[in-house]
Structures are given as C-alpha cells and as structure tokens.
Amino acid sequence: MRKRTMMATGAIVLLAGVWSLGGTRSPDVDPVVSGSIPKGAGAAGGLAFLVSNVETRADCQLTRGERMTHHSMRMTASAACEEVWLGLSHASTWTEAGDGTVIVANASGDAILTLAETDGLYEVIDPSGAIITLRMAE
User: Fold this and answer.
1) What phi and psi, each to the nearest 5 degrees, are found at residue 114?
2) 3-state secondary structure string across 82-97
3) Which helix (H) or strand (E) holds 124?
4) Inter-residue long-range contacts of 73-81, CB under 8 Å, 24+ positions, other chains counted
5) Is 83 exposed, middle or buried (0-12, 13-18, 19+ CB in 10 A)?
6) Does residue 87 have a pLDDT over 60?
7) Which of 14-23, 47-56, 67-76 is the least confident region?
8) For all residues of the chain together, what is the average pLDDT?
9) pLDDT at residue 37 tops 50
C-alpha cells in the first residue's frame, strides 16, 4: 500500500511539474475571433437600384443584399415600391437566370418581375405590359 501511495504522489508531483513548465499562462479569453451582422446590414450594405414606372412616374428603391445561393441574392424593397408595381414591395430575392435575365420574386418564390439588362439599365420583359426600368442608385 505504501508503494502505491508513493507512486500516486510521484505521479501528481510529476504532472504538476510538467504543467508548470508550460511557461506561458493560457489566455483568459477564447482566442477565436467571431462577429455578427446586425439585422438589416444586408440591405444597408447592398447594391441599391432606383425602380421607375415610366407610365405612372412612380419610383422606389430596391436593394440587392447578400448572396444566398450561386444565382440568388436577398432583395429588399421600400414600401413605396407598391406604387411602382403591385406586389413589388414584397420583393425578397434577386435570381440571375443564367441567360442574361433576372427574376425578382417574393418570399414564396413567385416572380414579380423578370428583367433583362440593356445598356446599363434593367428593363422589365415580363409582364410584357409593364414599362418599368431599374438603374443603380447614386
């Protein structure tokens, strides 16, 4: 029994010595750096477009935010967009179709407008009767 006690004591002393040889004290805080994105930062930091209805002369702002998938980005719309086109204030995604067109859709995935880029502007191609343009806001 005395031999086991001496071995246990020796092991404890050895471990305490190895631990004290570490030299530097471990940090009091976790060294991992993390961050968070405040709510609404995607809209504030995104690419803004001025949307204009040529017939009614109404306009509003759409903001393309962070990327969600390879082809889709978040989209936010001002409340004034409802005056530009019915349902446009509910725009939530901007999806690049791969053929040069863009689909602006609501949260359910229903297309509100389909756009095509022409000379630095986007023009609505569907619905065909809508005379609406998008250009980058200044």
Assistant:
1) -115, 130
2) HHHCCCHHHCCEEEEC
3) strand 121-126
4) 73/46, 74/42, 74/43, 74/46, 75/104, 76/42, 76/43, 76/46, 81/51
5) middle
6) yes
7) 14-23
8) 80
9) no
DSSP per residue over 40-104, as a string?
THHHHTSEEEEEEETTT--EEEEEEEEE-SSSEEEEEE-TTHHHHSTTGGG--EEEE-SSSEEEE
Q: What is the dihedral of CA 65, 66, 72, 76, to 10 degrees?
A: -30
pLDDT-derived band at 120 (thresholds 50, 70, 90) equals: confident
Cα four-point dihedral sign 49, 45, 95, 107: negative
Place of tokens 């250009």: 135
